[in-house]
Design goal:
Layout (H helix, E strand, L loop, with lengths): L2 H46 L1 H10 L8 H21 L3 H25 L3 E2 L7 E2 L7 H20 L7 H5 L9
Antiparallel strand pairs: 1-2
Helix pairs in contact: 1-2, 1-3, 1-5, 2-3, 4-5
Length: 178
Amino acid sequence: MSSTDATDGVATSRGFGARWQILQPWLSLAVRLAMGIIMIAAAIPKMINIDQSVRAVRAYRLLPEAVVPLVGTALPYLELVFGLILLVGVFVRWSAIVWLVLMAAFVFGVAWAWAKGYSIDCGCFGGGGDVAVGTTNYPEHMLERAGFVALGVFLLVFPRTHASLDAWMKGEPLFSRP
């Protein structure tokens, strides 16, 4: 290998690093906004029909009946607030952690219902409750959750995003340059 080949390899690796520094905050912004939109999309149908949200929580048969109405009522409002926090980009790394904890809880709930043989609509984006046997596609729900977990892991590892209140509170520009 000549010295020119070695130099070209270094330049190429530096080029990728420079491109990643430019691309990463944009990718993280897209992931953060997607996560916020997902949370808001999950919250709104539940807020419109709180009774259905309560039925969805009840269908999992995980919580004592005394707390089911509280969880079913509060969950959509918490999802909405969390979605807005993601959209504005405040506490991005902590938001990724909260997202992953929520996804773990949702995965556990779906796995629980699946393992117990319950046939339920998860109620993740409205609806919810017991449904006819054979109408639930648990593998599809788990794949969807795996994608959501991937979003959270990406944002946890790469929390620096454009257009975030985190950057603004640090005195950085909303659209920084590497």
